[in-house]
Specification:
The chain has one domain: Beta-galactosidase, Chain A, domain 5, CATH 2.70.98. The protein is 3% helix and 41% strand. It has 2 helices and 27 strands. The strands form 7 sheets. It has a 9-stranded antiparallel sheet with strand order 11-12-13-14-27-23-22-17-20. It has a 5-stranded antiparallel sheet with strand order 1-2-3-4-5, with no helix packed on it.
């Protein structure tokens, strides 16, 4: 096991530090102190070619873009809060509106464009990076002084665990996730449409016309949202379905089935790379990069549509009429803790 850190540039006049964790199999994970951004997950294919399987910007300053969440920690709250309003203890809080009529991913800066404090610890058969920060009472409109940390734990089974912790001195909202874009072709050689996807879910949550959650559940059976068995992503993504047309692809939460089995599996059959997603969160937003931008990736391509796929494990975000709000409430002095594990292997 090995840990390295180096300065890779500057943002807002501060050093951007890259922390790299390497296990005994040669798998590498690199994380920035800016936004907790995962820039690299390097794993082998069936021919033992080690390549990066997450999207990465060529220029470090591209991560400053106000609508960029590439690889970042998202918080305090992941997803859209309808109309940017919520009520706790009979008090209504108004959040910044940064996505149509809604609040998205914690606000204007959120946790994705903050500098985090880094520390690491090597243990038997695993290595751990801990990033931490403090979010002040009133920051981005949220109540409570909130202390959060995220552990990135790499072990010799080629599993990367993300452990999220938080504690506030007031009742508040917390619902964190990671926004990495996975592409198992390696080094962004092709888009993700020919990847095979399986989701352990019977229900998904539809969106309203503003992309906030409608507050109802729909069965996936006999719809384009049915991934109970492996299915190529391209198979249904362009079907004439209202929800797909609205979001220009998949950008919806699936309600995950209970049990210890993997919740999501992504497979590139051509090169053998496969990944499982395990989580104790009740849902996962799967996003198929439906909106591109002009920022350049390390592959030399622009960050265009369908270059990656996100698995944003989380509680359902707060929809219309404050649907699902209770799942995001963190009571004062109670601990928020959720875990997501990405396991990489050959199939």
């Amino acid at each position: 096991m090995r840990f390295e850190e180096k300065v890779v540039g500057k943002i807002k006049g501060k050093d951007v530090v890259s922390y790299t964790l390497t296990n005994d199999n040669g798998m590498k994970v690199s994380v920035l102190n800016y936004g907790g951004i995962i820039t690299d997950i390097i794993v082998p294919d069936k021919n033992n070619n080690f390549e990066n399987i997450v999207l990465k910007f060529k220029d470090i300053k591209s991560y400053e873009a106000p609508d960029s969440y590439l690889g970042a920690i998202v918080g305090r709250t992941a997803g859209r809060i309808s109309k940017g309003k919520f009520t706790i203890n009979n008090k209504t809080y108004n959040l910044p509106i940064n996505n149509g009529v809604n609040n998205l991913h914690g606000g204007m800066e959120g946790f994705s464009r903050r500098f985090w404090k880094g520390d690491f610890k090597e243990e038997k058969h695993k290595i751990k990076l801990t990033l931490s920060l403090k979010s002040r009472d009133g920051e981005e409109g949220f109540p409570g002084n909130l202390e959060v940390k995220v552990n990135y734990i790499l072990d010799n089974s080629n599993s990367l665990a993300l452990e999220y912790y938080g504690k506030s001195d007031k009742d508040t909202l917390v619902n964190m996730t990671n926004h990495s874009y996975f592409n198992l072709s390696g080094e962004d050689k092709e888009n993700i449409l020919n990847h095979k996807l399986k989701i352990n879910s019977d229900e998904y949550l539809p969106l309203d016309d503003s992309y906030a959650l409608k507050g109802i559940k729909e069965k996936v059976y006999k719809t384009p949202f049915d991934f109970k068995e492996f299915k190529i992503i391209e198979q249904d993504i362009n079907k004439d379905d209202y929800q797909l047309n609205l979001a220009k692809g998949y950008d919806h939460p699936w309600i995950l089935n209970n049990g210890k089995d993997s919740k999501v599996t992504l497979w590139n059959e051509e090169n053998g790379r496969c990944m499982d997603v395990f989580t104790d969160n009740p849902s996962v937003v799967i996003y198929t990069a439906n909106f591109g931008d002009k920022e350049v990736l390390t592959s030399g391509r622009s960050n265009e549509t369908r270059r990656g796929i996100c698995f944003e494990t989380q509680r359902p975000s707060i929809g219309i009429n404050e649907a699902f709000k209770e799942q995001s409430i963190l009571r004062a002095e109670e601990e928020y803790k959720v875990v997501t594990i990405f396991k990489f292997y050959l199939r």
